[in-house]
TrEMBL record:
This is Carboxyl-terminal processing protease. It comes from the Bacteria. Signal peptide: none annotated. Belongs to the peptidase S41A family.
Length: 377
């Protein structure tokens, strides 16, 4: 037998031994629970008044196991949901154009993407999604709601909205379109101050931010307003790459604190932008947004203006499961460069500026311009 075949055989034997060992451990310590699970499956298969596939029962059991963690960010994804999640990470999908988040067990619109079916229909930031495709969203996880809103281009989906201050649900029937998330918006506010807004951290975001910064510098930018308001986060890698554009070389960007493996320390490797900066944040700035904002605040690279951030200081990894399903599992927490744990706490801005609902003026942006105007003279 060749050496490669021997190594492959050893790997298989070790894998099977691991599975049997785990099974033996689980049975020894939880035999009654495993027996109960198998009994329930058998009873449903034989006694339930309608036929139920074994696949559906197993999916339900797996989903329940993950929900038992009582962690809103850990989710079992069936093949369709896993497909949609991968589409979201790459930044293009078929849907209605809503960026949503979970607030107090409600699915809330962060903002509609401009020129998409949702925006054209009049759905607004702050609207609560109470129904999707005829299903009540009470108790529904975020990924399920998102997957229901997505589907083949040209098909219809109904969305029920409860607007704050109203008692009646508004019903919208939206036709799905190909949605490309425009993660970056940039412009010069005057001849010295540049403005860059990032709506989400996707695979394409670092390159888009680099390009936008290059364009702004060519136009004479002497100071930058970086808008992370209502940015729900995204990829950790994208956050690190974008922070690297602003943090001095060699400085820590973030610590990733694992339970059963060595912590990771991500450091800046590139020359920093080196211009005065103001970062805009609010309660919708979460996860990857807080990694970037926390690093910029800790190293005093930028002044944070706005309202306290959301407070999502945990990191999820995506695992592909057999049958094209997936598991999004919280695997670590992250700490800012000064070792601040902001999970469920958020980041306090250096200068607090409330933005009144319905105000025609962007008070936070006006404050940022005022601060930068003094720095770039």
């Amino acid at each position: 037998m060749s050496r490669k075949k021997i190594i492959a055989l050893v790997v298989v034997v070790l894998f099977l031994w691991g599975i049997f060992a785990l099974g033996g451990y689980l049975w020894k310590n939880n035999g009654d629970k495993i027996e109960t699970l198998l009994t329930v499956i058998a009873l449903i298969k034989s006694q339930y008044y309608q036929p139920v596939s074994t696949e559906k029962l197993m999916n339900g059991a797996i989903k329940g196991m993950v929900e038992g963690l009582d962690d809103p960010y850990s989710v079992y994804l069936d093949p369709e949901q896993f497909k949609h999640l991968n589409e979201q990470i790459t930044g293009a999908f078929g849907g209605v154009g809503l960026i949503v988040t979970m607030e107090e067990k409600h699915i809330v619109v962060v903002k509609p993407i401009p020129n998409t079916p949702a925006a054209k229909a009049g759905i607004k930031a702050g609207d609560i999604i109470v129904k999707v495709a005829g299903r009540d969203t009470k108790g529904m996880d975020l990924d399920t709601a998102v997957s229901l809103m997505r589907g083949p281009v040209g098909t219809k989906v109904s969305v029920g909205i409860l607007r704050p201050g109203e008692k009646e649900t508004r019903e919208f029937t939206l036709v799905r379109e190909t949605i490309t998330i425009p993660t970056v918006e940039s412009k010069m506010l005057d001849d010295k101050i540049g403005y860059l807004a990032l709506s989400q951290f996707t695979e394409n975001s670092p390159e888009a931010v680099r390009k936008a910064l290059g364009d702004l510098k060519r136009k004479g930018m002497k100071g930058l307003i970086f808008d992370l308001r209502d940015n729900p986060g995204g990829e950790l890698t994208a956050a690190v790459e974008i922070a690297d554009l602003f943090i001095p070389k060699g400085k820590t960007i973030v610590y990733v604190d694992y339970r059963n493996q060595p912590d990771e320390e991500e450091k800046a490797n590139l020359p920093a932008l080196g211009l005065p900066m103001v970062v805009l944040v609010n309660g919708g700035s979460a996860s990857a947004s807080e990694i970037v904002a926390g690093a910029l605040k800790d190293w005093q690279v930028a002044v944070l203006v706005g309202e306290k951030t959301f407070g999502k200081g945990v990191v999820q990894s995506i695992f592909k499961l057999p049958g094209n399903a997936g598991l999004k599992l919280t695997v670590a927490r992250y700490l800012t460069p000064k070792k601040h744990d902001i999970n469920k706490k958020g980041i306090e801005p250096d200068i607090v500026v409330k933005q009144p609902a319905g105000s025609k003026e962007d008070l936070q942006l006006l404050k940022a311009k005022e601060i930068l105007a003094k720095k770039v003279k």
